[in-house]
Write a structure and sequence with these properties.
Blueprint: H1 2-5, H2 8-36, E1 41-43, H3 52-62, E2 65-70, E3 82-86, E4 92-94, E5 98-103, E6 110-112, H4 121-131, E7 134-141, E8 149-154, E9 157-158, E10 164-166, E11 170-176, E12 183-184, H5 193-202, E13 206-212, E14 222-227, E15 233-234, E16 239-245, H6 253-263, E17 325-326, E18 352-353
Parallel strand pairs: 2-5, 7-11, 13-16
Antiparallel strand pairs: 1-4, 3-5, 6-10, 8-9, 8-11, 12-15, 14-16, 17-18
Length: about 350
């Protein structure tokens, strides 16, 4: 068997197969070199900071293809200025390679205006900021929608939601200032229903019940009654009910009287009720102060010397009138000491002694 493997015919077939394989490989690589222009490379020209028109002309002269892509607008650079290039300048590429150019656009990209009508101003301002729009002039207008966006303007013209504007554009908004208080109700009697609705809307009231006599709701009917009454004071935004008919108000006297009995209630004057809430005012008694007990004072009576009365010699001898002399019978008065409140002591009286 080994002899058959080393037969000259087998060896010849192996050599022929290797030669064919080697030839096919060489032809393949040669075809790739011719097809891909191997060894023929072109340096990428530097077109940075040039205008897009100049960059395209240079790339065409170099035999390179190009693709222009708008970059994010930067106001620091000129419009249509090349800001980035890929591959980088100086890189060697094959002939016909596509070069990507990033160009600064002429202005900001356009954005769609969001629908912020009839929304609260705080929420509306946040939505405008999210899409890149700025709020300019803010005008307040009388409306029952307090702090709600009524209209949008751009350069003095009305702006509708969905309009495309350049990014960072400034728009104006009209905001409702809220209803006014204590506004006089207009007189609608004698007007047609259409005119009455226009007057109600003009004074920022709301149209309430509209009742027609024949039930056809004709706009040309004449208003003969309204509630609240004309010249009453109400807040804006409140409803005004109207009654209409083909007839004039003078011919609807009975119906007007009936409606007056329902909607025009007269309040009789009633004397004021006594106020039972005001009862006797309770005054807190003042605290009693007890008299302080003072210690009794001990009073020592003064001792007086007894008085001795000496009889005078008589100039005339009278047997019937003897001479009298006064002497004190109690020369030593008694000293009294008591613990009870002191009483005023009487002084000892002198006794009269008659000496015969």
């Amino acid at each position: 068997m080994l002899k058959s493997l080393f037969h000259w015919k087998v060896l010849l077939n192996i050599l022929l197969a290797a030669a064919v394989f080697t030839g096919l490989v060489w032809l393949t690589f040669r075809w790739l070199e011719l097809h891909t222009n191997h060894g023929k490379e072109i340096p990428v020209p530097n077109v940075m900071n040039k205008s897009v028109h100049d960059a395209i002309r240079i790339l065409d002269d170099s035999g390179l293809d190009y693709e222009v892509d708008s970059f994010k607008f930067d106001p620091k650079f000129r419009p249509f200025q090349v800001l980035q290039i890929y591959p980088a300048p100086g890189s060697r590429v094959k002939d016909g390679r596509t070069i990507i150019l990033k160009v600064n656009p002429r202005t900001w990209a356009q954005v769609s205006v969001p629908d912020i009508l009839d929304r609260y101003k705080g929420l509306a301002f946040r939505q405008l900021e999210q899409v890149g729009l700025k709020v300019g002039d803010t005008i307040y207008e009388p409306s029952i929608q307090r702090d709600a966006i009524l209209r949008m303007t751009y350069n003095g013209t009305a702006l509708k939601p969905g309009t495309l504007l350049p990014r960072f554009s400034t728009i104006g908004v009209v905001i409702g200032a809220g209803p006014k208080r204590n506004i006089t109700v207009p007189n609608l009697v004698g007007l047609t229903v259409q005119e009455a609705k226009a007057v109600i809307a003009q004074n920022l009231f709301e149209v309430g019940l509209v009742e027609s006599e024949d039930g056809k709701q004709d706009e040309s009917d004449i208003v003969y009654y309204q509630d609240p009454a004309a010249f009453d004071v109400r807040d804006q935004g409140m409803q005004i009910d109207i009654w209409s008919s083909k007839k004039t108000p003078a011919e609807m006297g009975a119906k007007i009287s009936q409606l007056n009995s329902i909607y025009r209630i007269r309040l009789e004057e009633v004397p004021p009720m006594p106020n039972y809430d005001d009862g006797p005012v309770y005054t807190e008694p003042a605290p009693r102060t007890e008299p302080r007990q003072e210690a009794p004072k001990t009073e020592t009576p003064r001792t007086e010397a007894p008085k001795t009365e000496t009889p005078k010699p008589a100039t005339k001898t009278d047997a019937s009138k003897p001479t009298a002399s006064k002497t004190t019978a109690d020369p030593k008065p008694k000293t009294q000491t008591t613990t009870t409140p002191a009483k005023t002591e009487e002084k000892p009286k002198a006794r009269k002694v008659v000496v015969e």
